[in-house]
Design brief:
Blueprint lengths: L2 H24 L16 H8 L19 E14 L6 E13 L15 E3 L1 H4 L7 E3 L2 E6 L7 E5 L4 E13 L11 E10 L7 E5 L5 E3 L8 E15 L10 E14 L2 H18 L10 H23 L10 H27 L5 E3 L4 H9 L2 H14 L3 E6 H7 L11 E5 L11 E5 H8 L19 E6 L1 H33 L1
Parallel strand pairs: 1-9, 1-10, 14-17
Antiparallel strand pairs: 1-2, 2-7, 3-6, 4-8, 5-7, 6-7, 8-12, 11-12, 13-17, 15-16
Keywords: Cell membrane, Glycoprotein, Ion channel, Ion transport, Ligand-gated ion channel, Membrane, Signal, Transmembrane, Transmembrane helix, Transport
Catalytic activity: chloride(in) = chloride(out)
Pfam families: Neur_chan_LBD, Neur_chan_memb
Length: 503
């Protein structure tokens, strides 16, 4: 064979190989690997043949040829729930999400009858079709894993695919804090289809135990009260950009209810605030003119309570409505401030110099006499004297108080000077001196005078006015405040705790 003939044959073989290569690139079906005798291949080799591009397109739905709906069943296993601070309005979730669907293109029972399951990780996920889901209330999320991501896929002989991935996500939770810290919060994880609408892909929860909680799940600030699941269809359009396109999209929701543990707030906020309010009442046992200790005690309790309340307010969002903790703050602040106002009131009365005339020693007349302006009090006393000329003036309230003592021999109990007013027919009043026993006996005799004659007419009954010094009035108000303030605070507590627990 000549050199010319040899070169001609080599060129012909090259042309044939080139043309065959061009045909192979244009039609890959010509070199599609065979699935016969599939048990002889390794798992990776068999899966590369089963999911080869010549017979499998991972961008198309499993039912793209028939047009049927693809049903994707979901289940979740919750490892960890951590509600964040109230001002963040979110919570962290660690969970295992499992999706199950059937892809007839991956059925290999006829090709590899002895193979029971194909298991792979992220490399297998890159070969097959996987539904694209997203969490609509997601703030951030990621796949968990150390060296590689925790993704697991198993394919059954009939083409059933089980896709598992371990995730951590921070999800928004729009909390209602009106009853904080006695509130119950309802948060959810929303799974929705991103690419396919409900006419071709439907999401469904597994029938048996769709969501399971880890036995080692423990919450610190909250307790898990209840949880449930539901399925729905959401509307998506281009305007709100909720999904990838317009239409109705299938969605899954896992909702759980959390109850806030109040033990921390009772020990660190409510009980200390009760003690601070009770401490402000110590001022009622101090003398009304003790300005320095009473002002120091009042201001220190007020500042201590404001500091305590501000530490709690820093952890809360600034909302437009009033929270239960703010009602408690306003109530306690009102009681502490009222104690300061009471001191200013009694201190002002204590520094007065003129005695006050009272018709009766009770709250009505004492408060009326102390709250009435000085000029008005003078005019009122003048009118009373003009309208009632037959008035007799008794001793001060302190003397009356001493009369009830068990020791009549004490100072000021021997003799009393009493002035009696007689009818206008007499020119001058009669002044008599009586001992303590005679005075008591005379009061028991229906108003008869001890020094008068037996045949004289009984004088008309007169109104008796009692005088109290400003110091006595201030002390009287302090004594009543020792009882009134605790009773009002107990009433406030009854109303407040009834509201937070019963409404």
């Amino acid at each position: 064979m000549t050199t010319k003939t040899l070169l001609t044959n080599v060129l012909s073989v090259f042309i044939v190989c080139y043309v065959s290569g061009q045909k192979t690139s244009q039609n890959p079906a010509l070199v599609c690997p065979s699935l016969d005798n599939g048990d002889s291949y390794t798992q990776s080799e068999f899966m590369s043949r089963l999911a080869n591009e010549c017979r499998y397109d991972r961008l198309l739905l499993p039912t793209y040829q028939t047009g049927e709906v693809v049903y994707v069943h979901a289940s979740a296993y919750i490892y960890f729930i951590q509600p964040a601070e109230a001002h963040d309005l979110n919570f962290k979730l660690h969970f295992l999400l499992q999706l199950r669907w059937t892809d007839a293109r991956l059925a290999y029972a006829l090709y590899s009858p002895e193979r029971t399951k194909i298991i792979g990780e992220n490399d297998l996920r890159q070969r097959i079709w996987v539904p694209h889901l997203y969490m609509s209330n997601e703030q951030s999320s990621s796949l968990m894993g150390t060296d590689s991501k925790d993704v697991l896929i198993s394919v059954a002989p009939d083409g059933e695919v089980l896709f598992s991935r371990r995730m951590q996500a921070v999800l928004y939770c729009w909390m209602n804090l009106q009853k904080f810290p006695f509130d119950d919060q309802t948060c959810s994880m929303n799974l929705e289809s991103w690419k396919y609408n409900a006419s071709i892909l439907r999401l469904m929860w597994e029938r048996d135990n769709p969501v399971r909680m880890s036995s080692e799940l423990h919450l610190t600030e909250y307790s898990l009260l209840d949880y449930w699941t539901n399925e729905s269809v959401v509307r998506g359009d281009i305007v709100d950009m909720r999904q990838g396109g317009a239409g109705n999209y299938s969605a899954l929701k896992f909702t759980f209810k959390l109850g806030r543990e109040v033990g921390y707030y009772l020990m660190d906020y409510f009980i200390p605030s009760m003690m601070i309010v009770a401490m402000s009442w110590v001022t009622f046992w101090l003398q009304a003119d003790a300005s320095a200790p009473r002002i120091t005690l009042g201001t220190s309790t007020m500042l201590s309570f404001i500091t305590l309340a501000s530490s709690q307010a820093k952890t809360l969002p600034k909302v437009s409505y009033i929270k239960a903790s703010e009602i408690w703050f306003l109530g306690c602040t009102g009681f502490i401030f009222s104690a300061l106002v009471e001191f200013a009131f009694v201190n002002t009365i204590w520094r007065r110099k003129k005695v006050v005339s009272l018709k009766k020693v009770n709250s009505k007349y004492i408060l009326k006499s102390t709250l009435t302006p000085r000029l008005a009090r003078k005019e009122l006393q003048k009118e009373l004297k003009e309208s009632s000329p037959h008035l007799s003036k008794s001793r001060s309230c302190s003397s009356l108080h001493q009369e009830t003592s068990s020791d009549p021999a004490g100072p000021g109990y021997n003799n009393y000077l009493t002035v009696h007013s007689f009818p206008s027919a007499l020119n001058l009043p009669t002044i008599t001196t009586q001992s303590y026993d005679e005075l008591i006996a005379g009061q028991g005799g229906n108003g008869q005078r001890s020094g008068g004659s037996e045949g004289s007419d009984e004088p008309p009954k007169h109104h008796t006015w009692t005088t109290m010094t400003p110091q006595e009035i201030a002390t009287w108000i302090d004594k009543r405040s020792r009882i009134l303030f605790p009773l009002l605070f107990v009433s406030f507590n009854i109303v407040y705790w009834t509201f937070v627990y019963c409404l």
